Amino acid sequence: MEKYRLAIDVGGTKIAYGIFNEENEIIFRHRTATPLEIMPDEFTEKLYTEIDEVLEKSGIPLSELKGISVGMPSYVDYENGIVVTSGSIHNIKNYPAKAVLEKKYPGVRIVIDGDTNMAALAEHEFGAGRGFKHMVYCALSTGLGTGFIVNNDLFRGSYGGAGESGHMLITPGEGLECGCGNKGCFMSYACGSFIAKHAQLAIKNGEKSIMSDMVSDVSEITSVHVGEAYKKGDELAKRLMDQLIYYIALHIYNLFIAFNINCYVCGGGLLNMGDFFLEEIQKQVDEFNKQENQKIYIKAAELGGDNGIIGCAVALEK
């Protein structure tokens, strides 16, 4: 009897595996590192080896597996199960993930989707988005991405790329160049990796900051250092934090104006800045919002680091 689901959340630092039973309980967990420079063939072998290992250690036979669902930190062609590009695992391009897994595990249902879409499913079903007919999950982390729930269902768009909203342009041709190939997208102003780059560039150009004393080399500065310096009153860190909050709020407000969706569930590492972070984003969004009697709700994700594998499990029920 097929009653178990294998969920795989591929992140920028780790790959999390979880086996779910019929009561949506995680009965087995496994975690490995994500080699960011791994080649496609090596990635295939890694998945095969680790899936087999998870099934063996959990004691779940393949015949009792309802499906395998994988969330990738990537732009995914959902219909064809192809990972088009990945911002984290750079060598994974036009990778036929669904076909690769179907070859190894024939007869098992395979679902491949982007990690923000999986997180959106999880938070809508079991987390901060419960009760909202429409919802946007905002991943505020190393990058900036979204997952859209419309009419209680995931919206992927014509090519499966809905949610790549961090690459909407606000200063075309100006600013730092993003991996999307453009300068001036939201992500180049408002995510963890780029706020660190702005800090590094400012210090190299002569601005004074206590962040210089936190690392042995300026290139080692991360968003964590920006957050720590901000709390200590550092002027550069304050300017960068204001930039981060402003552009995340603008990103959310523009989505609201485009789609009139009122619930934005935010998750990701940037929330570790502190409670003030979402509070300030809410204040800035409220300043932008001139629509009478149309409240925009900025909510913290409730499922933490499990929202990826939970979303993968939910996807197998759709």
From TrEMBL:
A Pfam family hit: ROK
Q: Which domain of life is it from?
A: Bacteria
Instruction: Please give the family membership noted in the entry.
Output: Belongs to the ROK (NagC/XylR) family.
The reply on keyword Cell membrane is: no
Q: Which UniProt keywords apply?
A: Kinase, Transferase
Keyword Protein biosynthesis attached: no
Q: What molecular function terms (GO) are annotated for this protein?
A: kinase activity
SUPFAM superfamilies of this UniProt entry?
Answer: Actin-like ATPase domain
List the InterPro entries hit by this protein, alphabetically. Answer: ATPase_NBD, ROK, ROK_cs
Matching entries from Gene3D superfamilies are given as: 3.30.420.40
Q: What is this protein called?
A: Glucokinase
